[in-house]
Prior knowledge:
By secondary structure, this protein is an all-alpha fold. Helix content is 51%, strand content 0%. It is built from 3 helices and no strands. Helix 2 (30-37) packs across helix 3.
Amino acid sequence: MAKKRTAVRRAWSKDDLKLMKSMAKDKQGVDKIAKKLKRSPGATSVMAAKHGVSLSMRA
């Protein structure tokens, strides 16, 4: 029987937050930002909301 994978939680560094904010400012979109940060779109959205960052792609 295969072993069940457990979630690995990584802390958000200041560089991660800085990159997320700059990419959000450029209207990159949550999927692209999450891929760049090697995180899930859900985790990226939650952290953006906590810091008051809008991930909307609309101009």
